[in-house]
Specification:
The structure holds two protein chains of two kinds. Chain A has ten helices and seven strands. By secondary structure, chain A is an alpha/beta fold. In chain A, the strands form two sheets. A five-stranded parallel β-sheet of chain A has the order 1-2-3-7-6, with helices on both faces. Chain A has a two-stranded antiparallel sheet with strand order 4-5. In chain A, β4 and β5 form a beta hairpin. Chain B has twelve helices and 14 strands. In chain B, α3 packs parallel to α5 and α8 packs across α12. The longest helix of chain B is centred in the first third of the chain and has 15 residues. The two termini of chain B are 26 Å apart. Classes of the chains: A alpha/beta, B alpha/beta. Chains A and B meet through α5 and α6 of A and α3 and α5 of B.
């Protein structure tokens, strides 16, 4: 557990957002929208909430584990891994380029420290995280497993297979989070395939649900602490986290249009002007 | 007369169940997951003795594959169990991303493969699974021939590191290999030595090939029978050594002609030792309900078809 103040964490968020925009601009591809929206969440986990070791080993015994199910928001994860010591920030410049460990979607194949399973094909991460949580229980390891999913991803059937299993098997050393930004590639989630009452659905599946504002660091930290206190009580925990897609860059905010599009040079300059360089660009 | 005989018939899935139970005693990291087919997969003994290491998943195969991938993190060795159709076709993407591409030590154990599933019909008789699994980079594919070999293969997988697919079946089948016959993953097993034609078989068809061998002998054709229990990695050395001697080949499998053992061998021989080759396999069709041995006859996979194929291969030399 690190002890960064809210102010320090805000400054890290600003740099992470710069990293995200610079990465997708440099290779003219990738997914800035969801990455920007989840910046506070990743910074909170890796700089405050999780007990983790940047020296990295795959088994992760005696540390908290994180899994990203919606793998397309890899830019934010890569930035946070680099900024928290898993690899050098300079490597962020190789994102999506040939011979890089930073694949378009996260992978273990190139042995990038911090990644424990490939993701990108949606709907699979919750199952993997539950498996890892049960492995921890078998090993008598009382650390926690965290997993992030997208809201559009809730349309995948496997999510609900995993939801049913997690409650049935009382996987209560797990905190799952949904990035509830209401947007997916083809448009607003409510227009593409409405999730209706997502909170009620998860509760009906037997999970304890907490709600958070994913772009308000202070309240997010409070909610994550509350979620931690709800573990070990016989039920898995779900954090329904509202965010704005594209948060932090005014012209990208709140629209599905920036789900998977890179900024051009003018847009890039505009975005950079809105994001303070706090830790030094890579 | 067939050089191998049997006094007992058993299903290969029971060999898996026995192997898994023994593995459970040997290695506390072995865990088992099952999608509502514990009895069919013969996983009851493991479940009874190691309830804390047995995970009932319900009818949710995609989740089962993901869970297994996750359980490897922390050092568990998961064996998943369901029918071959639901172990592969239904969850190909989950296996591809979370297991194969992520290089997870998951053992996908699949019963009721092929036509010999019998009466349940084509919805369950998967004939494409070997192809799907062998196409995945890094995936080991094993198709054992009888009860003892399935048990030995299961035990061997406990020590093997990396993703693997183990395919076995439902019907009672001759038990013709000795319980202590050595089994090494990736090492072909020559059952009968011969000089005129190399017959490469896997799974239930190894027995059919042995029956064919005795018929061929009476026709004056000396057939070498090689059990290719590991289709990937293929024992190229053994295949080439045999064909170097016989100069023609026959493959036999309870699988589509596309994607199975036959095309692995054809690919190898085309590159290194071109020669006449015949394939005994299902020819681009689905199966149907019926008795296992009747189905093998109707779809051209029984001993008589292997004899025909061998005669043809020899005549093309």
């Amino acid at each position: 557990m690190k002890t960064e103040s809210i102010n320090d964490l805000q400054r890290i968020c600003s740099q992470v957002r710069r990293d995200i925009v610079r990465m997708v601009h440099a290779c003219q591809s990738g997914h800035p929208g969801g990455s920007l929206g989840c910046t506070e969440f990743f910074v909170a986990l890796y700089f405050k909430v999780m007990n983790h070791h940047p020296s990295f080993n795959m088994d992760g015994k005696g540390e908290d584990l994180f899994f990203l199910s919606n793998g397309h928001i890899s830019p934010v994860w890569y930035s946070v891994l680099a900024r928290s010591g898993y690899f050098k920030p300079e490597e962020l410049g190789t994102f999506r380029k040939m011979n890089s460990r930073l694949q378009g979607h996260p992978a273990t194949h190139e042995h990038l420290p911090g990644i424990r399973v490939a993701s990108g094909s949606l709907g699979q991460g919750l199952s993997v995280a539950i498996g890892a949580a049960q492995s921890k229980k078998l090993n008598g390891d009382d650390c926690l497993v965290y997993v992030l999913m997208g809201d559009g991803e809730q349309q995948e059937g496997q999510i609900w297979e995993a939801a049913m299993y997690g409650a049935h098997h009382k996987v209560d050393n797990l905190i799952a989070t949904i990035d509830y930004n209401g947007q997916q590639i083809d448009g607003p989630v409510n227009e593409v395939m409405s999730l209706k009452n997502l909170k009620a659905k998860w509760e009906a599946f037997g999970w304890t649900v907490v709600e958070s504002d994913g772009n308000d660091l202070e309240s997010l930290l409070t909610t994550l602490e509350k979620a931690k206190n709800l573990t070990r009580l016989g039920k898995p925990v779900l954090n329904l986290m509202t965010t704005a897609m594209g948060q932090g860059v005014d012209f990208m905010m709140g629209s599905h249009k920036w789900h998977g599009v890179a900024p051009n040079d003018d847009e890039f300059a505009k975005a950079m002007a809105q994001l303070e360089e706090t830790l030094g660009d890579y | 007369m067939n050089k191998y005989s049997f006094t007992d018939k058993k299903d290969t899935r029971s060999g898996f169940g026995a192997g898994l139970h023994e593995l459970g005693k040997k290695n506390s990291n072995v865990v088992a997951l099952c999608a509502d087919l514990t009895g069919s997969l013969k996983m009851d003994a493991f479940k009874k003795e190691f309830p804390e290491r047995f995970f009932q998943v319900g009818i949710a195969e995609a989740n089962m594959i993901g869970l297994a991938a996750g359980m490897t993190i922390g050092g568990k060795i998961p064996f998943t169990g369901t029918f071959a159709n639901f172990s592969t076709g239904r969850v190909y993407d989950q296996i591809r991303q979370s297991v194969a591409y992520s290089d997870k030590n998951v053992k996908i154990c699949a019963s009721h493969a092929g036509l010999t599933l019998g009466e349940d019909g084509a919805t369950h008789q998967i004939l494409e699974d070997i192809g799907m699994m062998k196409m995945l980079p890094g995936m080991t594919v094993i198709v054992p021939c009888d009860y003892h070999q399935t048990k030995a293969a299961t035990l061997a997988l406990g020590d093997h590191v990396g993703p693997a697919y183990l395919r076995f079946g439902r019907p009672s089948w001759p038990v013709f290999t000795a319980a202590d016959r050595p089994f090494v993953i990736g090492k072909a097993d020559r059952m009968v030595e011969g000089s005129d034609v190399s017959i490469f078989a896997c799974g239930h068809l190894v027995w059919e090939a042995l029956e064919a061998q005795s018929t061929l002998e009476s026709k004056g054709i000396s057939a070498e029978i090689i059990n290719i229990h590991t289709i990937k990695p293929l024992d190229a050395e053994a295949v080439i050594a045999s064909v170097n001697k016989t100069r023609c080949a026959v493959s036999c499998e309870e699988h589509q002609i596309n994607g199975g053992l036959g095309d692995s061998i054809a690919q190898l021989l085309a590159a290194h030792l071109p020669c006449p080759m015949e394939m005994v396999a299902v020819r681009d069709s689905f199966g149907e309900s019926g008795k296992p041995t009747d189905l093998l006859k109707k779809y051209g996979l029984s001993a008589e078809h292997i004899v025909e194929a061998a005669v043809k291969a020899v005549s093309r030399k």
